[in-house]
Design a protein that fits this description.
The chain has about 220 residues and is of the alpha+beta class. It has two domains: about 80 residues, no CATH class; about 110 residues, 60s Ribosomal Protein L30, Chain: A, CATH 3.30.1330. A four-stranded mixed sheet has the order 5-8-6-7. Helix 3 crosses helix 4. The chain is elongated, with a radius of gyration of 28 Å.
Length: about 220
C-alpha cells in the first residue's frame, strides 16, 4: 500500500521573560497510507500554531527537550477520502491515487473510432465531427473512462512531429465538444510498414486511434 510521510516544522517564539533561551526548530514527522494523504494535510493545516513547552530536568535548572502540543493524526478515524483530487490521466502516476486505482482499475474497454488524415496534413476532416461527437458523449456519460490516449501515427517519409500534431488536433476537437482535457493524453507513434519491395502505405495509417489508458469501476470504496 502506498504510504506518505510529511514533516511539520515548528519554530518556537522567544519568551520576553527568558530572552536568552529560545530553542531551535522542532521537526515532527507524520505518516499515513496514501489514501488519507489529504486528510493528514488538513489535520496539519489546522495546527499551524500550537503551544510548546520545556519542563525543567529533575535536579537541574536546565530545560528538557521542547515538545509541541500537536494532536497525533489518527488514520483509523480520519474522514473518508473525497472524490479523487487528481483528475484524469494525472492519476496514473499520482502517488496519492495508487491505492484507489489498485482497488478500482478494470479491464479497459475498446474504442473503434479512428480519425484519418491526408498525406502531410494534421487537419481534421469535416466528416470526423460526427464520430468525435459520439465519442465525446460517451466520455461525458461514462466517468469510468478516466484517461484516453490519442495515438497519432505517421507513415514513412512523414516527420514524427506530425503524429503529435494530429493527436493534438483530435484532442482540440474533443475538448471543443465538452471533454475535459485532463482526461486526454496525446501520444506520437510511427506506423510500422514492413513489406518486401517498395513500401505500400495505406491511407488509413495516417490516423489517430483511441486507446483507454485508465478505466475504473464506478464504486471506489473497498
Amino acid at each position: 500500500m502506498p504510504y506518505v510521510v510529511y514533516e511539520a516544522v515548528y519554530t518556537p517564539q522567544s519568551n520576553p521573560e527568558y530572552p536568552q533561551f529560545t530553542p531551535g526548530d522542532l521537526h515532527l514527522r507524520f505518516g499515513t497510507p496514501a489514501l488519507h494523504e489529504f486528510a493528514l494535510l488538513d489535520h496539519l493545516k489546522q495546527q499551524q500554531l500550537v503551544a510548546c513547552r520545556s519542563a525543567a530536568a529533575p535536579s537541574s535548572c536546565l530545560p528538557e527537550d521542547v515538545t509541541a502540543d500537536v494532536v497525533a493524526f489518527d488514520a483509523e478515524h480520519a474522514p473518508p477520502p473525497a472524490a479523487p483530487s487528481v483528475v484524469g490521466c494525472a492519476a496514473i502516476d499520482a502517488a496519492s491515487e495508487q491505492d484507489r486505482l489498485a482497488r478500482t482499475r478494470t479491464e479497459p474497454s475498446t474504442i473503434n473510432e479512428r480519425f484519418t488524415f491526408g498525406e502531410g496534413s494534421a487537419a481534421v476532416s469535416p466528416d470526423a465531427t460526427s464520430g468525435a461527437r459520439e465519442f465525446a458523449k460517451r466520455m461525458n456519460d461514462d466517468s469510468s473512462l478516466e484517461c484516453v490516449g490519442l495515438v497519432g501515427q505517421t507513415t514513412p517519409g512523414e516527420p514524427l512531429s506530425l503524429a503529435e500534431a494530429r493527436a493534438r488536433a483530435v484532442k482540440q476537437l474533443l475538448v471543443s465538444l465538452g471533454v475535459d482535457s485532463r482526461r486526454l493524453l496525446t501520444i506520437a507513434a510511427n506506423a510500422n510498414v514492413s513489406v518486401p519491395g517498395p513500401k505500400a502505405v495505406e491511407p488509413e495509417a495516417r490516423r489517430v486511434s483511441l486507446r483507454v489508458l485508465l478505466q475504473t469501476s464506478a464504486k471506489s470504496t473497498p
